[in-house]
Design brief:
single chain; alpha+beta; 5 strands; 41% helix
């Protein structure tokens, strides 16, 4: 090995020694505050289509009551159950809050969406510093604005018309 090759090897080892951090680690990320004890209750309102859900969160064992019934009784569809518990899963708070909800109007899918929004808003109210970024990134704090289009005059439904006859 010549002196130039020795110098190149020494520089290469220095570069790898100092660049052991990934580029994401080198940026100064704001550290989230430590999560305090889960003793604060919260409330939130969720709407989806025609459904309105009023939600109360109380520190507890993770039981979910909807209109006085258990979650599995009120929403037998597993997809709706998963949709409702997604905010707790994202924040890793499964089993830490009891949910008491009153839901009116709409169908099952709309009610499940309204309940998820209400739970997410209540969790956001409880601890904005730790919960807001994760809930917002997952899209749980945004209301779904899609509603049924109104029926138009002269049509059978919102867009369905009778068949056109040329002659």
């Amino acid at each position: 090995m010549t002196d130039n090759e020795t110098l190149d090897v020494a520089e290469a080892t220095e570069v790898t020694a100092y660049s052991s951090e990934t580029p994401a680690e080198t940026k100064a990320a704001p550290a989230a505050k430590a999560r305090g004890p889960l003793t604060v209750p919260g409330a939130g309102l969720g709407r989806r289509k025609q459904a309105i859900a009023r939600v109360r969160l109380v520190p507890g064992s993770g039981a979910i009551k909807v209109n006085g019934r258990e979650l599995a009784d009120y929403f037998p569809n597993k997809l709706h159950q998963q949709l409702i518990t997604d905010p707790f899963t994202i924040l890793e708070l499964s089993g830490s809050y009891d949910v008491v909800a009153r839901i009116t109007g709409g169908g099952t899918a709309g009610q499940a969406g309204a309940l998820r929004l209400g739970i997410a808003r209540a969790l956001n109210e409880i601890d904005r510093d730790n919960n807001r970024a994760s809930l917002k990134k997952a899209g749980f704090l945004k209301r779904d604005p899609r509603v049924i289009e109104r029926k138009k005059a002269g049509l059978k439904k919102a867009r369905k018309a009778s068949q056109f006859s040329k002659r």
